[in-house]
């Protein structure tokens, strides 16, 4: 069973010393890293606004390989990561009749399984990247899920202003806040409560640190758990750290937020975590 070491939780990946030690241990990764840093530097120069920048990153990555663009090294891993998300959510309350909002749905790595499971018209996927949504439509066609009439919509922000009040039983964001500066997360938490049904919940993953919060290439952001739970609280939501997610072979951590007292928040609280493997 994977376990995130105390050391990996304290590491600051933005520090030069960490990068140098990593390069010595992984010389084959130096050239790809430098290429990525140069590409990202150019994209940041062209798009100082984070969402525009990350949309450009996704356009570039999707053009090469949509499955790699959402973080999977191979088709087998793409299938496995989708299955992991689906199985976990089904074990933690997802029901066929639920209405689900999948924030940052990507190319439907997990989305096609949710669409297949839910009643027609009950899946709503949004993403900042039109390119990945085009890839999402291909996934939908590939699995023959047209009759499930899911919504797939590009978005510029996370105000969720085009969505109805009290509508969604489940809101989900897998590997989205791990790529988001705090303002984006704040915006989402400020507005998600409005679209949640009374007993609804919002599950999201994040890259956890127990040391200094930091980011790498403005692509990967590391937060302390309490930063995010306090932010949720400021927006009138209670949070639960989903400790059993940490037993799975996935490098991120998971938090569930809901209205105070919601049944979905019930559960034991423990800590522990795996090594980062993929997003
Ligand atoms: C690592 S991928 C994960 C995709 C999908 N959730 C999955 O697990 O396969 C992150 C996705 O989030 C999208 N994204 C990043 N920031 C976003 C934001 N602020 N709002 C909506 N989507 C966002 C990206 O375009 C990308 O498709």
TrEMBL record:
Any Pfam family hit? Methyltransf_12
> Has UniProt tagged this entry with the keyword S-adenosyl-L-methionine?
yes
Q: Which InterPro entries match?
A: CFA/CMAS, Methyltransf_12, SAM-dependent_MTases_sf
- Does the entry feature the keyword Lipid metabolism, yes or no? yes
Gene Ontology terms describing biological process: lipid metabolic process; methylation
Q: Where is the composition biased (Basic and acidic residues)?
A: 266-279
GO molecular function terms noted in the UniProt entry: methyltransferase activity
Alphabetized UniProt keyword annotations:
Lipid metabolism, Methyltransferase, S-adenosyl-L-methionine, Transferase
Q: Where is this region: Disordered?
A: 259-279
Q: Where is the Methyltransferase type domain?
A: 101-202
Q: Which CDD domains match?
A: AdoMet_MTases
UniProt-listed PANTHER family = CYCLOPROPANE-FATTY-ACYL-PHOSPHOLIPID SYNTHASE
Q: Its family?
A: Belongs to the CFA/CMAS family.
Name the chain's protein.
Class I SAM-dependent methyltransferase
